[in-house]
Predict the structure.
Amino acid sequence: MKTSETKSLPKKNGSGRVVFLDGQGELPMLEVSTPWSTAEIYLHGAHVTRFRKIDETPLLFMSQCSRFNEGQPIRGGIPVVFPWFGMREGLGQHGFARVKTWDLKEFVPAPDGSVSIRFRLPDCPEASGIPPFLAEYVVTVSAALELKLSVTNESKDESLSFENCLHSYFEVGDVTAIAIHGLKSVKYLDKVANFASKTETSDAIRIASEVDRIYLDTAGAVEIVDPRLSRKIRIEKHGSVSTVVWNPWITRAQQMPDFGNDEYQRMICIETGNVASNQISLPPGETSTLRVKLSSSPLS
Ligand code: TA6
């Protein structure tokens, strides 16, 4: 529940605007409006929880059971997974970036009406075991949603090894009716089959059971064709060679306390990053940038 409007900053130019609100759990949130769309972004995790084009169904799925608490991840939208993906012995799942309150560095309403917001991951005790780094995340809202996660290795002599992943949850009309294109002939690790190595044979992947796959060495765009919502979602990327596809299906959905039992029916995660054998090893002083553009268009 939004509780109060705390601050509204005037536009500098263009017609995009940003309003500061108390979001759910009273966590600080930015509400962004542009001529084409609206978006909501929490400082907690620099987490985009909503992107909606005017007159369209929201692009991103959000669980009705999501927690909005400091120290716990939000379920839905776009969790920023960094500096590791999956489980790390004693350290939990998917890194600490998604449960930290990011610093808001600036927001820029551009003359064309789009709005960019830049966040920085603050220093935190969890980062003490790895070489010093700077992580910044820029979210640009327009007719599309563009995301840029950059990591700079600030060490003078040590390489920085990490995984990154923008773990996007998409809203779909009926997950069993969608087709996922763009991964044919790509090798993947099948987590549901104990990480067996397989090769994708289908140009139109269908979901009819639990799916949890890490597609490796793939730089191409992916599309979700959704006949129920009559739209196509396109996921374009740069600086990423892994794509993860996840739907928990019935049993896992029931096991997750922050996810509704039936919500698996209207979501699919198509996640963009560099994980597993595609993890990044960044030399001292260098910057690695992951860019993702999410857009949608009506099915013709
Ligand atoms: O990206 C897929 C995945 O790693 C799955 O294995 C599943 O556990 C999912 O992420 C959600 O993880 P979370 O820690 O948010 O519950």
Remarks:
- Residues 1-12 have pLDDT under 50 and may be disordered.
- The chain has one helix and 25 strands.
- The first helix runs from residue 249 to 255.
